[in-house]
Amino acid sequence: MSALILIHVAISLVGIGSGLVVVYGFLTGKTLRGWNLLFLTTTIATSVTGFFFPYKGVTPGIVLGAVSLVVLALAVAALNKGWAKTYIVTASLAEFFNVLVLIVQSFQKIPALHAYAPTGKEPIIAVLQGVAFGVFAVLAVVGIRKLPKAV
Questions:
Q1: Which residues contact 99 (CB under 8 A, 6 or more apart)?
Q2: Nearest-CA neighbor of 38 among 24, 51, 21?
Q3: 0.90 exceeded by the pTM?
């Protein structure tokens, strides 16, 4: 395994872990500034380092990386401007993208999971991705509802 892959995976896992803490902060109404910074930095780094892998044409990974960077730019702007609802939505979407890749990569790289989806096109992957999207959508809505109401 190359150094680039190891660094990319390590950064990705830190991004996923810190993103879960950030989402927890949404649900508890806590501003976790350091965790938000770690999440945004590592998730941006994950998307950027993904572009350093050998180019084999436009793939779903390249498209997702580009879309993720746009979403992350909006998240950074929202966090800096104090746009709480926008930040919750964009950060939740960015974390969903991280988990989406985790699902796909897990089925490709972990032998026990690969046995259930050897081609990567089996319904189990789509179901898990749909569940992940639903979970992060619900968490974003709950996080927005936890925001203090304007007086």
A1: 16, 132, 136
A2: 21
A3: yes
Six-digit token pair at 30?
């806590």
Q: What is the DSSP string of 109-121?
A: H-HHHHTT-SSS-
- Listed by start position, the domains of the chain span 3-145
Q: What is the pLDDT of residues 36-89, one digit of tens each?
A: 999 999 999 999 999 999 888 999 999 999 999 999 999 999 999 999 999 999
Q: Write out the E strands in 79-120.
A: none
The crossing angle, in degrees rounded to 10, of helices 123-145 and 84-109 is: 160
35 is written with which tokens?
């965790």
**Are the CB atoms for 99 and 140 separated by under 8 Å?**
no
